[in-house]
């Protein structure tokens, strides 16, 4: 087991260096000189240019620049935003709770609806429920979520007026963000209506972001359940006269969960990609919107640092899933 | 004609051909056949769009801006699905727009699959160290969320449909590499490969003639699935302003242009989305059918 964990950790190191190298090269490959872009309309003198160039280390050989960036990253220094002049690291962690809150809610939404849907479909294989649920899941899986968001806005914000269109909470409420999670903060503030405002703001983005994971989980649960339901031990349980509810809910579902958990873990990347679109549409102040805005503003250190942090996050989650999988299923460790 | 008939009569006694066998299983999945039909319409519109469309996709009828669809008050048969804020006919733009999505799908899948299969074959046959390097590089690409990586790549290359296609192809390619390598590794162990090698087949022949045809089934399924991913991602990039640029009637770009009219004119937002959804859904239906027809494990169940 220890060997397995160590070997997985060892493959993490070259991937990490590679990810750093890629995010580092983007800033050099982007069109336009970053210093000229930073100076903006006013332009700048040659001396000032040389000065800034030295300050950012652009005058040194590229491999030294990379080495310094890498060592900086390992010490938690990701550079400073051109636009806000704040460290990238601070910006990331100021905005990260918003994305985490949204993604968590989306994932809960997906699991709570997706698991039962998959189980019901598998148990009713080939019947009406199965077909209806799986057709819906396929539609969800094929959904262009940016359009889905607009559609929900038209119906629920435009026609029905139930939900707000953008932001995390109504401007009427103000309280210090203690945790950065709007649901917790608004509840803790004790202001009347603050929590329900936060929930209303969260509702549509959650549905939009959760749609594709929901469809994937439902499909995956169904196929995993079908596979398990064909096993001998299920037949034995049936022969013993165990109730179908217990067979499906306990004996089958528990074993079907292994691939489902993998899918849930691996959809972190999907969630982050979805967050880019969802947050842009709903003006949700999280990592996705921050990245898109920074790309448009040509805020290179932010793009570079954000790319790296997001990639490392995806890698850490995937690694954890891999290891958990090794813990659950001893067969994997042997390879 | 007679020849064809007698050939068919002979087939009854022989083992059915691969294509026939495939069609036999594919046909059983009704959804897949519906998907195939929709895809055929989509492909037809992609090729003949400008000749089928009632109006030009870029012609602006200045006096008829934001005309609602025909079944709503104020709609007219001249513009069946209404017009956009610039007075362009929605239906014509959607029809002409089919070719951009189709083109994106074809190009991305071809580039990603060709590159991915080649690299995957090399990784599968290469010595251990080269294999490790290739797979680590693929891990690195896969560590970035695909849309984000595509977005940054397009920012580097400059926003256009061509660059969006390049970016999406790069992002999708690792999936083919992994898939091909995995099949190659399991096929390589088999006796027929050993006997081919004993018979003196070189690496080139082993890779492309002996092993590759036996690895194709999952790759074909992956191709169908990434066709739809490519369309979705290209539309998303267009929506974010990093794909096709206006006035190109690409569906995602149309949605981006329509965003400000979302609460005033539902049709400019709704129809391009439906076009994307229906196309992607049809391709995914086909992909499911392909998987069922090509995966021998599922065939008998």
Task: Tell me what the structure shows.
- The complex is a heterodimer of chains A (335) and B (301).
- With 335 residues, chain A is mostly helical.
- Helix content of chain A is 76%, strand content 0%.
- Chain B is an all-alpha fold and 301 residues long.
- Chain B is 74% helix and 0% strand.
- Chain B has 12 helices and no strands.
- The longest helix of chain B is centred in the last third of the chain and has 37 residues, at 203-239.
Residue stretches of chain B low in confidence (pLDDT < 50, at least 5 long) are: none
Helix-strand sequence of chain A? HHHHHHHHHHHHHHH
Helix content of chain B: over 70%
Helix/strand/pairing category of chain B: mainly alpha
Q: How is the main sheet of chain A built? A: none
Strand content of chain A: under 5%
List unreliable stretches of 5+ residues of chain A.
none
Instruction: Say how many strands of chain B there are.
Output: 0
Outline of chain A, from the CA principal axes? globular
Blueprint (SSEs and pairs):
The complex is a heterodimer of chains A (335) and B (301).
Chain A: H1 2-29, H2 34-39, H3 46-56, H4 62-74, H5 88-123, H6 128-141, H7 145-159, H8 182-189, H9 194-229, H10 232-239, H11 244-266, H12 268-281, H13 287-297, H14 300-328, H15 330-333
Chain B: H1 2-13, H2 18-28, H3 30-52, H4 90-125, H5 128-143, H6 146-157, H7 161-188, H8 191-198, H9 203-239, H10 251-258, H11 266-294, H12 296-299
Q: What keyword list fits this structure?
A:
heterodimer, A: 335 residues, mainly alpha, 15 helices, globular, B: 301 residues, 12 helices, 74% helix
Précis, in short:
The complex is a heterodimer of chains A (335) and B (301). Chain A is mainly alpha-helical.
């Amino acid at each position: 087991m220890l060997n397995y964990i160590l070997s997985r950790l060892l493959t993490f190191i070259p991937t990490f260096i590679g990810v750093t190298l890629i995010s580092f090269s983007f800033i050099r490959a982007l069109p336009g000189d970053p210093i000229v872009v930073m100076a903006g309309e006013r332009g700048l003198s040659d001396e000032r240019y040389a000065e800034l160039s030295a300050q950012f280390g652009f005058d040194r050989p590229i491999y030294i620049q990379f080495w310094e960036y890498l060592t900086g990253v390992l010490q938690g220094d990701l550079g400073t935003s051109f636009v806000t002049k704040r460290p990238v690291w601070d910006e990331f962690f100021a905005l990260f709770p918003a994305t985490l809150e949204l993604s968590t809610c989306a994932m809960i939404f997906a699991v709570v609806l997706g698991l039962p849907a998959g189980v019901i479909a598998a148990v009713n294989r080939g019947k009406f429920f199965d077909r209806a649920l799986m057709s819906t899941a396929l539609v969800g899986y094929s959904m262009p979520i940016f359009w889905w968001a607009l559609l929900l806005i038209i119906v629920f914000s435009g026609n029905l007026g139930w939900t707000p269109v953008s932001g995390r909470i109504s401007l009427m409420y103000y309280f210090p963000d203690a945790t950065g999670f709007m649901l917790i903060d608004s509840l803790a503030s004790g202001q009347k209506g603050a929590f329900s405002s936060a929930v209303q703001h969260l509702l549509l983005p959650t549905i939009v972001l959760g749609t594709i994971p929901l469809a994937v989980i439902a499909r995956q649960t169904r196929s995993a359940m079908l596979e398990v339901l064909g096993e001998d031990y299920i037949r034995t349980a049936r022969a013993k006269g165990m109730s179908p509810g217990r067979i499906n809910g306990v004996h089958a579902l528990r074993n079907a969960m292994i691939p489902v958990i993998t899918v849930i873990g691996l959809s972190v990347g999907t969630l982050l990609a979805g967050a880019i679109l969802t947050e842009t549409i709903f003006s949700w102040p999280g990592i996705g919107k921050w990245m898109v805005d920074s790309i448009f503003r040509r805020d290179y250190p932010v793009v570079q640092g954000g790319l790296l942090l997001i990639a490392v996050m995806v890698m850490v989650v995937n690694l954890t899933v891999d290891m958990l999988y090794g813990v659950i299923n001893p067969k994997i460790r042997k390879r | 004609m007679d020849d064809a008939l007698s050939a068919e009569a002979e087939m009854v006694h022989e083992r059915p051909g691969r294509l026939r066998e495939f069609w036999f299983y594919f046909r059983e999945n009704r959804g897949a056949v519906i998907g195939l039909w929709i895809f055929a319409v989509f492909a037809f519109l992609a090729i003949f769009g400008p000749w089928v469309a009632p109006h030009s996709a870029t012609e602006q009828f200045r006096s008829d801006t934001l005309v609602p669809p025909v079944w709503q008050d104020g709609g007219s048969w001249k513009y069946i699905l209404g017009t956009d804020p610039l007075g362009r006919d929605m239906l014509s733009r959607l029809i002409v727009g089919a070719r951009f999505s189709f083109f994106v799908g074809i190009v991305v899948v071809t580039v990603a699959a060709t590159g991915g299969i080649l690299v995957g074959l090399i990784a599968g046959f290469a010595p251990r160290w080269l294999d490790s390097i290739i797979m680590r590089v693929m891990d690195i690409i896969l560590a970035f969320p695909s849309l984000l990586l595509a977005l940054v790549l397009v920012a580097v290359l400059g926003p256009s449909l061509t660059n969006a296609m390049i970016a999406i192809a790069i992002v999708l390619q690792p999936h083919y590499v992994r898939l091909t390598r995995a099949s190659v590794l399991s096929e390589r162990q088999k006796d027929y490969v050993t006997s081919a090698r004993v018979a003196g087949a070189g690496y080139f022949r082993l890779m492309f003639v002996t092993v590759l045809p036996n690895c194709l089934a999952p790759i074909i399924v992956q191709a169908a699935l990434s066709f739809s991913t490519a369309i979705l991602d290209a539309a998303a990039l267009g929506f974010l302003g990093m794909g096709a640029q206006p006035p190109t009637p690409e569906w995602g770009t149309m949605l981006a242009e329509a965003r400000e009219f979302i609460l005033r004119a539902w049709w400019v937002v709704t129809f391009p989305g439906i076009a994307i959804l229906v196309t992607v859904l049809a391709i995914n239906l086909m992909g499911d059918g392909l998987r069922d027809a090509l995966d021998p494990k599922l065939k008998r169940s």
